[in-house]
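Bit of a strange request maybe. I'm writing a small parser for structure token strings and I need a real example to test against, not something I typed by hand. Could someone generate the tokens for this chain?
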Amino acid sequence: MKRRELLRLLATGAAFQLAPRQLMVVLGEARALLASQSSARTLNVHQEATVKAMAEMILPRTETPGAADVGASEFIDLILTEWSEEAERRRFLDGLTDVDAQAKTLFGRDFVECSSLQQSEILTALGEEMAVDAERLRDQPLAAGESPSQSFYSMLRQFTLTAYYTSEAGATRELHFEIIPGQFQGCTTDHAEKEEQKQ
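Reply from user aminoacidic:
Good idea to test on real output. This should exercise your parser:
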């Protein structure tokens, strides 16, 4: 599978529609790509910290790992670098700038410097905007071959969820995906004895 095709499958969540064996191949290749990255290539240090904080609020650590634990920000950087078109990349980066602008307007500091309560308030507002945009897009007819453009927050959520559920922790502990299914037990002695007793 070509690198860009692999990343497209992961970024759109289409990898989950593959058969288990194909899915494991895709996940293995994706994680190998992530392991080969020594640092972010699209996101700068501040942007990466912002993405990490936002992703962790979307999927926080509980009794299972959170988005930061599975490298969601690194995954998002990989998708932005290797798969996203320039317009999508720009929309995402502009969205990060807008998040900091909102944080400064409301609280006088960048998003990563806000308290968790303040960050939550910003994410709630972004979620409400995303819902309004989705409603508008649903009622707006698209030209043939045209696909709706996603808002920044919609992209962030999709990338975060995909990063999480294609990680080992997300796939095994949350989705309960089994690489090797449980053992098949055919006709056991107990079962055979019960069948004989019925006759």
